[in-house]
Amino acid sequence: MTYKSFRIGLQPEWLLQQKTSAISLSEVLSLLAAIDATGNITGACKACNLSYRHAWGTLRRFEALFGVPLLLTRRRQGTALTPFASRLLWANRRIEARLMPTLESLASELQEELERLLPRNDQPLRLHASHGFAVEALMQHMEGRSPGMELRYRTASEALASLERHECDLAGFQIPLGRFEPDILAHYLDWIRPKQHCLIHLAVRDAGLFVEAGNPKKIRGVADLARNDVRFVNRQIGSSTRRLTGLMLAEQGIGEHQVQGYDTNEFTHMAIAAHIASGMADVGIGVETAARRFGLDFIPLVKERYFFALDRRNLDNPSMQALLQIMQSREYRSYIGQLAGYDSSLTGDVQQFEDAFPGTNA
Fold it and tell me: What is the pLDDT of residue 6?
């Protein structure tokens, strides 16, 4: 029997629990998102491939279940969501932003377990990395190609520790350019072995403050995080962004206890953006792409280089060379270069540690 390639995916789903049954909200959430995007039901029906009659039936059914209207129809102004529907939609976006990396990682683990039972001649590369847009795009470009890639979402520290234990082939980590680089690099050197490991350059990206569109709180920089009227949302403990945030606050002489919301955590840049866009916080720190996708304003603070670390002895393996060919392709570089705040001019370049970080005593 011939082995066939397949891809497992997991998706979050809302269920409205009733006494004897559970009703899925997937269809009405998709419909509300389309109405929000197009401004009218006709356009939403086309986007969702639904008949006008079916769409209205779905909306009326859930209005009856919730006991509140979902739409506001204004003459000559199209259709808008009610505050309840809008809040429902934003809650769904927050959930997707928060859970998707975990579900993708679980799906990858499940696929790995199943593929162990299938006949195949090659072994996929094992990548441990934090969730990011260039990493996500790489997985899409690797899909269906040999030898494939297994992804586990980990913080940079966790990924590098996995590499040291030989639990992965590639470990992703990001490091800011400029004055914060030495402190972050010193932390990573607990696991990176400059004489043993080399680096693949993934991208340079802009990191900064996310604020509501129009910046109503007039937030200008890190010093504003200590204001009493500003609510902050942080990344999870152990993440590189949280470590960088701590360094920037220390530079300003601001203690963590002075920042309202410092202990409020999200696990991805998209989750940070969704948190702010839904009105649950005023500001957070992440990469520009996430801010733009949620219609937020972005205040740049630093540029970060993102690398994959790997054992030098594995560089000439056919599977690693196949990965490099994809990363150096015009198609992949062009895609990364089009992401807001990303620079792909060095994407796929192999660098020795001493060339990437000259003058480092390691």
Answer: 64
Structural contact between residues 347 and 332, judged by C-beta atoms closer than 8 angstroms: yes
Pairing, β 149-153 against β 197-211: unpaired
CA gap 108, 128 in Å, rounded: 11
Q: How far apart are CA 236 and CA 286, in angstroms?
A: 12
Using one digit for the tens of pLDDT, what is the confidence trace for 45-94?
A: 999 999 999 999 999 999 999 999 999 877 666 788 998 998 888 888 88
Cis peptide before 12 (omega within 30 of 0): no
Matching residue, tokens 């789903």: 13
Q: Which residues of 92-119 are buried (b: 16+ CB within 10 A; e: fewer)?
A: bbbebbbbbbeebbebbeebbeebeeee
Instruction: Output the pTM of the full model.
Output: 0.80
Distances (CA, A) of 25 to 31, 64, 81, 166, 216: 10, 14, 16, 43, 33
Contact by Cβ (8 Å): 145, 326: yes
CA 360 – CA 63 distance, rounded (Å): 62
Q: Within a 13 Å sphere around the CA of 153, how many CA atoms are in the beta-carbon half? A: 21
Tokens 């639990």 correspond to 167
CA distance 79 to 42: 10
Q: Are 41 and 51 in contact (CB under 8 A)?
A: no
Query: Which pLDDT value is given to residue 122?
Result: 66
Q: How many residues are listed for the chain in this entry?
A: 362
State both tokens at 98: 């928060």
DSSP code at position 86: H
Tell me the percentage of the chain whose pLDDT exceeds 90.
67
Q: How far is it, in rounded angstroms, from Cα 67 to Cα 14? A: 18
- pLDDT tens for 282-333 read 999 999 999 999 999 999 999 999 999 999 999 999 999 999 999 999 999 9
Identify the sign of the CA torsion 241, 243, 249, 252: negative
DSSP-assigned letter for residue 130: -
Note whether 130 and 124 are within 8 A (CB): no
